[in-house]
Design brief:
CATH superfamily of the largest domain: Histidine kinase-like ATPase, C-terminal domain
Number of domains: 5
Helix content: 40-55%
Radius of gyration: 50 Å
CATH class of the largest domain: Alpha Beta
Structural class: alpha+beta
Number of helices: 13
Largest sheet: 6 strands, antiparallel
Strand order of the largest sheet: 3-2-1-6-5-4
Shape: elongated
Number of strands: 18
CATH architecture of the largest domain: 2-Layer Sandwich
CATH topology of the largest domain: Heat Shock Protein 90
Strand content: 15-25%
């Protein structure tokens, strides 16, 4: 197969038309999906971590308030007073034990409560509904409110020499509060609450997908308060991704790291309290994050391979079906080129594009033959039209001269009525027969209407009342010729006078906001049947349906068609029935030109 042959070129074209779009689609889809997944992941997980931060902050603040309340509310003044003494009575010991017992029972996750009095060198440990007491020395890590990260619970040295109770160690974090002799800076003692991880676990487990994502709750030193990896809880985590985490100044952000050769997406937020700066960290493997995008790419590759196999087979069939009819068509063209127009076309019965091409070529040959025969007929028709045009130029002169003679005779007889009517008829004939102007100022159109109504007034005399309300600002606006005349004439042709009622016809114009010309024709005739009015109104409001077949009210359709040609499709004609009878025709023409046919046809004068 030659590289210059149609078969070779079509094969390359078909393969390229399939491979290029599919490869481009796969690349674009994968890239867009990754971008969308990343953006959605950031938004959703940022909100999730933010809510987790709020919940943890509220939880720690509630523990802070609880530890504060045992000293500064309820029995607090008495408790502080007792801790200031060096020697206590049995009643004082009972008060102290009652206070820490109430504190230890406040929340179910409070594992134990430890209270130490500096002046009495006494330690009190509440655990499992029992309060233990012992003379001892105790020195806290810091003299402030702080939280010791997760560790295994101990007995604060209460039973170093004498075992009071046996305890299975439990993972807790400890909330320490230094008790001071306010307003003096002297320390009175230390209060510590060991808090189990039940509630922290409850909050944290809602922030990640188990088995797919990792979660860490870390303090500023990297100690693991809680983690989805249970073995890491309570340890000091040392990982490469922690360095960029603690280097960031933002309290919440995200970044990407390589962990064991696999990229991972890390999002974090921070609990920012004076006694706790905990970071909520969520690690999402790329393999989990983009598994849907990878699956979609894999399916697209399968589609590409199947499409290639189909394309190779289809290209061979298509090329074979192309070559034979093309050669046949070239042969037929050669015959026509030699002047033989009665050539046979064997491909006419095909239903594909080659059949269409053959039929169109056959039609073209027939049309050429037909045009040769019609050329002489067209010449005769043109000559006939020219003769009629010459005759049309003679008739207006005859009628004008005749009307002038009648008018002159009326003046001699001093019959001004006949002269006025003759003049009105002459103006109408001149306006109708002037074919040089297709657009005229509204003033000329109104003069024509006045002449027409003058003749009708002569006909009906007192039975017809005519009202004209013309806005002077509209008189110089250019409009298509004979726009109002068909509407006014419809009153006398179709509306007629209602029974036992004098006829009334009103013509009005106005200009709204300098941009909308409104023409109104009202009458008190018989009006229009509602079904017919709705049908014509619907017709006038749909540009594609203006080919109205009925001869009745065709003037309205003609007016609408010409207005849309000269102005714009936003021109409207509204038909409104009047009470008790009659019809109102209102034409609204936007003068701001948008796509009018003729640049000089719709400007104001």
């Amino acid at each position: 197969m030659s590289m210059f042959s149609i078969r070779y070129k079509l094969t390359l074209l078909l393969l390229a038309s399939i491979i290029i779009p599919i490869v481009a689609s796969i690349s674009i889809t994968y890239s867009h999906t990754k971008s969308s997944v990343t953006e959605k992941t950031i938004q959703e997980n940022s909100k999730l971590l933010f809510q987790g931060k709020i919940n943890l902050s509220n939880y720690l603040q509630s523990i802070d308030r609880i530890s504060h309340s045992v000293l500064f509310s309820g029995t607090a003044p008495y408790l502080l007073d007792v801790m200031q003494r060096r020697h206590l009575t049995d009643k004082d010991f009972s008060k102290i034990k009652l206070s820490i017992t109430q504190l230890g029972d406040f929340r179910k996750e409070f594992h134990q409560v430890f209270l130490y009095s500096d002046r009495q060198k006494q330690g009190y440990l509440y655990h499992d509904v029992v309060t233990y007491q012992r003379m001892m020395e105790y020195q806290p890590l810091r003299n402030v409110v702080y939280i010791q990260p997760t560790h295994w619970s101990d007995q604060y040295g209460i039973n170093q020499s004498n075992l009071i109770y046996k305890e299975d160690p439990k993972l807790v974090f400890s909330f320490y509060r230094t008790i001071e002799d306010i307003p003096l800076p002297d320390r009175l003692g230390v209060l510590s609450i060991d808090v189990g991880l039940d509630y922290v676990r409850y909050i944290s487990d809602m922030l990640y997908t188990k088995g797919e994502e990792q979660f860490f709750l870390l303090d500023q030193q990297g100690s693991v308060i809680y983690s989805s990896e249970q073995a890491l809880i309570g340890s000091n985590l040392l990982a490469d991704w922690m360095k960029p985490l603690f280097a960031k100044e933002e309290t919440s952000s995200h970044f990407t790291v390589e962990d064991k050769g696999s990229p991972e997406f890390i999002l974090y937020d921070t609990v920012d309290l004076p006694y706790a700066q905990w970071k909520l960290v969520k690690k999402i493997p790329y393999s989990w994050l983009y598994q849907d995008a990878a699956y979609l790419t894999q399916m697209n590759m399968y589609i590409l391979m199947g499409s290639l196999i189909l394309a190779i087979g289809a290209s061979l069939l298509v090329i074979h079906s192309f070559i034979k009819p093309i050669r046949q068509l070239i042969y037929e063209m050669d015959i026509v080129e030699r002047g033989k127009l009665d050539v046979q076309f064997p491909n006419l019965k095909r239903n594909d594009e080659f059949g269409v091409l053959s039929r169109r070529f056959h039609q073209m040959v027939d049309r050429i033959h037909s045009l040769i025969l019609k050329e002489y007929r067209l010449e005769l028709i043109n000559k006939t039209h020219l003769l009629k045009a010459l005759q049309a130029q003679i008739n207006p002169h005859f009628f004008n001269n005749a009307l002038q003679s009648i008018g002159t005779l009326a003046l001699k007889d001093k019959n001004m009525k006949i002269y006025s009517l003759t003049s009105s008829l002459g103006k109408m004939m001149h306006y109708n027969m002037n074919i040089d102007e297709s657009i005229v100022p509204l003033k000329i159109e109104m003069d024509y209407i006045k002449s027409y109504l003058a003749l009708q007034k002569q006909r009906f005399e007192e039975e017809l009342q005519i009202e004209m309300e013309i806005d002077p600002a509209t008189l110089d606006i250019l409009i298509p010729k004979m726009i109002l005349q068909p509407i006014v004439e419809n009153y006398f042709e179709h509306g007629r006078f209602a029974e036992n009622t004098k006829g009334r016809l009103s013509v009005a114009t106005r200009l709204e906001d300098g941009e909308l010309l409104v023409l109104i024709v009202e009458d008190n005739g018989q009006g229009m049947e509602e079904a017919k009015r709705k049908k014509i109104s619907s017709l006038l409001h749909h540009e594609a349906d203006l080919q109205y077949k009925s001869t009745e009210h065709i003037g309205l359709v003609n007016v609408m068609t010409r207005l849309r040609v000269y102005f714009h499709t936003k021109v409207t004609v509204n038909l409104t029935p009047l009470s008790p009878h009659g019809l109102k025709v209102e034409i609204s023409i936007p003068l701001k030109r948008e796509g009018a046919v003729d640049d000089e046809s719709v400007d104001r004068g």
